[in-house]
Amino acid sequence: MAVTDYRTLIDSSRTYNGLTWNEGVYAAGDGVQFRSADGAFHEAVRLSDRAYLFLTEVSPARDSCDTQVVEDSDWLHVQFRFKGSGFEQVGARHLIETPERSCIVSRYPQGSVIEREIPRAETWKYACLYLCPTALTSLLDIDASMLPETSNWMALQRYPEFRCNTLPLFPALIAPLSDIFACTFRGQMRRAYMRAKSLEILATLLHTLDQASEPPKENAIKLSSADLTKLAQARSIMAEHLVDPLSLAELARRVGLNRTKLAMGFKATYGDSVQAYWRDARLVRAKELLQSGAMEVTEAAFSAGYSELSSFTRAFTRKFGILPKTLKRKVGIDAGRRRDRTPSL
Asked: Are 85 and 236 in contact (CB under 8 A)?
């Protein structure tokens, strides 16, 4: 029986289904990425001790089966299925369906044997987090005893049996997952980005489980993969137009969505309306300019697209809880202290 140890998949000396190792994407021991000329890829990232992220997009030419043995402790497996479905046989008692556009959260007790069916498909795209309960609590800096029963089973040190929850792949999870698949960073910054997004995903998942024991209701608006791509394009366009925001109609025209789908889809996917997201992005930009010491308050306000200083001051204070001039003064004081501590040559 061919057995997979998922912790070894960050070893660049291994091969992955004939794909070519993409050297230099990660520092040694942090992760690996394998790609092919036709766009298929597999990526494995070490997030921390006994916590891993895996990304895969391939086109299986035939049905196959993957076997895993859980040896040293309980492990959690959080799967995010975009395309391609299958089944998991956990021991002799549990047969779990893994459908498309779903999130499957499983806890495997020590000693479990898992057999996964990977059926032939036009495209098989998924992401998964594989980690121990101790890694979950360490990554999120939480105590399992503080979580309600709907989610503490993921974090408790001892849990007597296999458990699995299946949720729809809802927009609040799709957004950070899409960011991960689109990431172009390399080296240490790529691993840092993957780790940050994994934390966002885990926090969102725990929050969702804690809200109710029932799976979350589907959003009223249906979003296809193409729609999600266009929403991501809209977000990028917004970042390029902080000083001169586009109208909702113009933004919708540029990305090829109607205004209703853009407005409702953006809210469902990113948690803010288009206007609120744009406003916050402008304020964050102004804060960065003030913290860099490069501009005065009036200049930062204009650079962030505000024509009236009073409007900027109100919005900035409401967002960050500090007056922009106070932040500017604090930055100057801190810079002076650093200069005073710098030894003269």
From this structure: no
Domain range for 242 is 225-335
CATH number (domain holding residue 154): 2.60.120.280
CATH of the domain at 271: 1.10.10.60
* Co-location of 191 and 268 in the same domain: no
Tokens of 42: 């597999």
Whether the per-residue pLDDT at 345 is higher than 50: the answer is no
117-171 pLDDT tens trace = 777 766 789 999 999 999 999 999 988 888 888 888 999 988 889 999 988 888 8
Q: Which residue, of 186, 211, 236, is where some domain finishes? A: 211
Tell me what the pLDDT averaged over the chain comes to. 83
- CA–CA separation, 44 vs 130, rounded Å? 10
- CA dist., res. 34 & res. 91, Å (int): 31
- Neighbouring C-beta atoms of residue 78, cutoff 10 Å: 23
Is 343 part of a structural domain of the chain? no
What is d(CA 270, CA 268) in angstroms, rounded to the nearest whole number? 6
Q: Which helix (H) or strand (E) holds 333?
A: helix 324-341
Q: Give the chain's domain count.
A: 2
Contact at 8 Å (CB) between 194 and 48? Answer: no
